[in-house]
Amino acid sequence: MRVLIVEDDRKIASFTSRGLREEGFVVDVAEDGETGLAAALTGTHDLILLDIRLPGRDGVEVVKEIRRAGLKTPVILLTAAISVPDKVRGLDAGADDYLTKPFAFDELMARMRAVLRRQAIPEAG
Fold it and tell me: Does the pTM of the predicted model rise above 0.70?
């Protein structure tokens, strides 16, 4: 499984990527919104972990662009923005889940499993 982390805080990106690699994931890291968007649009990732407050382009705009491009890659927003309006804005933009910082790695893994499970369920039609 390949995960894209879009995070400008190097400590958080390092901690998260190290933990995911230990769990067997292949991890790519982008440090700003523009680079993250370009990486996401390749469509090669199974999951995207996306900060909201990023240099260049904020995470909400990135997830909107991902969805406009027709990509269904699950997106979990990881952010210090904890207000209800921030959460609503992120989820309405197309994110699949929202986890506030600081977060426990075990909770991140559980949320990743949940969104990946939902992704695997075929749509009724």
Answer: yes
